[in-house]
Every structure is written in structure tokens, then in C-alpha cells.
Amino acid sequence: xxAIGAISSVPGISGVSGLGSTSAIxxxxxxxxxxxxxxxxxxxxxxxxxxLNSLSDAFGQLNDQLTAADASxxxxxxxxxxxxxxxxxxxxxxxxxxxxxxDVRDKLVEAYQDIMRTQI
Amino acid sequence: MSVFDTIRIAASGLTAERLRMDVAASNLANAQxxxxxxxxxxxxYQEEAVVFEAQQMGPMAAAQGVSAIAIVEPPKPNIRTYDxxxxxxxxxxxxxxxxxxxxxxxxxxxxxxxxxQVNATVAQAAKQQALDAIDLGKA
Lengths: 120, 139
Known about the structure:
The complex is a heterodimer of chains A (120) and B (139).
Chain A: H1 2-8, H2 23-40, H3 51-77, H4 84-116
Helix pairs in contact in A: 1-3, 2-3, 3-4
Chain B: H1 3-29, E1 49-56, E2 64-72, E3 79-82, E4 94-97, H2 102-136
Antiparallel strand pairs in B: 1-2, 3-4
Helix pairs in contact in B: 1-2
């Protein structure tokens, strides 16, 4: 489970927060995608929250899910009382979240590169 | 509601059906047990049944999972058989056998196995739905 351990040790999304300083990009992403992302993040968003904040919230949730999957997997391996389907579904949830997160990242990088390729 | 709520509801069904299966296995295994754990003769194993209850899961009241709240012993008379050679026979030569109806236990067990499959299929469908949604974002 080292791979998952390594992923879960990623502290939030501090690497990406560098993007926040280029306010033009933040503005662009907010205009494009913030509505959709706000809708998925449990509706606790204050109006002033930026896209990056909701993104880091989502990554926090992903981290929780990966940790939970990790914990139930190791308890199952250690002969705990966890059911097979509980372990499997938890891992499936974590993997779905990870897929979503990596797709969101792909979209972000794609948008960033589109902007960077702008001819001056 | 998120797609995970669907998966969690299906998971609650899976857990509940596993318990129902455990109880059916216990009833079938003990169909001939003339003594309970305390070891007293004349007090055979008693048939067990699970009580399920709908429980709200996630933010929507309509989305309800299932949870087992109790295991009860339905009041059914023991099966009395005349067998004076049995060490657990009473003074008149009758043995108290458990009130387990093997045929109906088998049906219940098959029902539990099928319901488990149903819930697994629901979880599978919810997962497929999420994957389809992710595919929407692909170019």
C-alpha cells in the first residue's frame, strides 16, 4: 500500500496553489468551471471562495477517502472483521475519486497550456 | 446526492444480506442441536431471524439504506420426536429438536444470496454511472 500512502501524504494541493498568483488564469478557470465544481462540493461554499479553494477541498476529501480505503484494506489483511464488499467498495470509491481528480488536473493543465501558447 | 450515496446504500444492503446468510447458516447448522450453549438437555437451539430497518443515508430523506437492528427468535414450538435411546430424551422418551424448518431455511438462504447479487449489481451500475460521468470530461 506504499503507493497510496505516498499519494495520501501529498499535503492538500499546495503545489498547484502557485497558479493562484497568476490572477488572469484564476479568473478564467472561475468563469469556466467554478459553477460545476461548486455544485459537487457539498454546497458549503461561501460566495467569496475561489476555484482553488474548492479544488483543495475536493483534494482533502480525496485524501480522506484514500486513507479510509488504506485503513480498511490493512485491517482486512490483518484478519479484521471487515467484509470483502466493504473493502472493495471503499477502494472503488477512492479509485473513482482519484480518477475524477486526475481528470480535473488534466483539464487544468490543458487550460494553462492553452493560455501559455497564446501568440503575442 | 453523490454517486457514493448509491454505492453506500448498496453496501448497506450487501452487509444486511451477509448477516441474513449468517443467520440462515446458523439455523441450518443447528437444525439437529438438542442442546444450547449452556449445555442443558431438553432446551434445543431456537430458530433465529433478522429484523431489518430502513435508515436514511446521505442528505436526501428518500435515499434509505438498510440496517439490521435485531436478531429475534420467532415463537415456534420445538419439534418433539419419540426416541428413547437418545441421551437427551425426557422421562417419556421424547426428544426436543429445534424448531428449524430446513426447507424454509434453504429458501431464505437462496433469497439472501440472490438479494446480495441484486445489491452488488446496483453498486456496479452506480460505479459505471460515475465512470460514464468522468468520460464526459474527456476530449
